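Lab manual, section 2.4: Encoding a predicted structure.

Procedure: take the sequence of the chain (262 residues), apply the prediction step described in section 2.3, and record the output as structure tokens. A sample record is shown.
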Amino acid sequence: MHLKRLIVAAIFLPAMYLYIMYLPPGFFLLLLMTVSLIALSEFYSMYRLSGILRHTCLFFGFAIIAVSYFLQELLTDAILFSIMAVMIIRLLFKKDPVSSLSDISVPVIGLLYISALLSFQVMIRKTGPEWIIFLYATVWASDSMAYYLGKGFGKRKLYREVSPNKTVAGAVGSVAGGAAGALLLEALLLDIDMTLAVSIGIMIGGLSIVGDLIESMFKRDAGVKDSGSLIPGHGGILDKIDGALFVGPALYWALKITAVIR
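Recorded output:
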């Protein structure tokens, strides 16, 4: 299993670097729309959502990403419209009011948790493709350091009820990996202050763990081990982007606060 993970990473990472860095922004939009569609589908399958609400929300997730690219100023409106539409559909297509809140919750949370959070990456990409590389490479460095430190030194559990395999040592490794990855990328790819890069890297390392735990919370609630099986040895798409979902908005806000994004 470990070898399979390494082989997939060795093929996938260089391909993604070339795709993001050298193709026009529209190709990243297409990639993100596809990722949103697959991750939403996995999330809805975890909770056994089917029928018109599932199909409508898959479309809305697709649309939210598109709006964030073409009409960014209407992004909040698009999200609120989607939530309103979910409630109207539930009202019209199922007359029994029993369980209406739970029927609405899964599709709405899916849109907010996946598509709305992913939309921040569209806005980051407009600043430059190097920031998307920074985001994902730093998350990858965090995850890798967390895995190896947790496996080698992890004894004390971090959050047993949600993720029994996560350890305090792994969490420390995530933060350290984020800082180290950001520092390396600052030297190779970005023209920003070293202190800022390390600070953002530490934030990414911490939020990567949080994003992982939140997806684990959903998976344990749904009674599944992985969100899917699309990527050999790695699970589903949602399993691979869980940390990046929370890192994206935080990175965007950090770049806004520090005036990297104007």
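Check your result against the sample. The radius of gyration is 19 Å.
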